Amino acid sequence: MKIFNTEDTIAGLPYKKLIAAIKKMFIEQYTIPQRHIHTLDSRDPDASLLIMPAWQENFLGIKHVLIYPNNAKRHQKQGLFSTYNLYDNDSGEPLAMMDGNVITNRRTAAASALAADYLARPDATKLLIVGAGNVAKELAYAYAAVRDIKQVQIWNPTQKRAEALAEQLSADGFDASAVTNLEKAVRENDIVSCATLSTEPLILRNWVQAGTHVDLIGSFNPSMRESDSDLFRDTSVFVDTSEALMKSGDLLEAMKDGALQKDDVLGDLSDLCNKRHLGRSSEDEIMVFKAVGSAGEDLAAAMLVYEG
Question: Is the pTM for the entire model greater than 0.90?
Fold first, then answer.
């Protein structure tokens, strides 16, 4: 069994190849069961285990995510650790173990970029990143694989973290800056990508200008929100998979408020990748993409790392 450490896993996931691999996954036949969540008997009363399996003809993969929310104060450690195990689906033989955090962060950003390739304006050059965490740090690189990103702005509740990310992106050749006025930034940018753990709306519909693409990555459970309900009222809404309609606080609250019906969702990534929906239809259309993540994306990334 091969072991891919953090650096090896990063090296195996260049964004152009990863986006193509995830697109292929949505076109081909993958089996993706519901994820399993277990409460753990631990000294951390909030500890839980998330198990995400997926398989296709040749490979089977399982991501294990251990979530210990109180680690920061109990052990001065991060609160989430993840590993990815890849198996031969013909024999069950273990093939590889990889850094699951890297798999998650990169495939999440790549899925957003894949959606944007269908939903963002072809001439989009200005990107606003809302958040400065592990996924947010990947977004500019992922989007640059599908659009000619010339300017990146970062907003984060903690300004120092936004400044640190802007410094990192500037060192890598982006025209990047930290901003403090979120409304102004939303109004000025072509693409707005949110990757936060917010439980209150950050992006308001009346800030969003015609032609903008809004990408919502956080809100992967019912208690989390990154937008107000009105964002879904008169815009073109897409999701990564139908699971988003059952799990995302953004979508659940919009449906509760009457701003969105399930039938209002125009399609998912499978529909876009298989050309059952062509995505953006006009320059002024406001597109909204809501993702909660898929084990199939994890498997596509792991296969790319393993096969090189």
Answer: yes
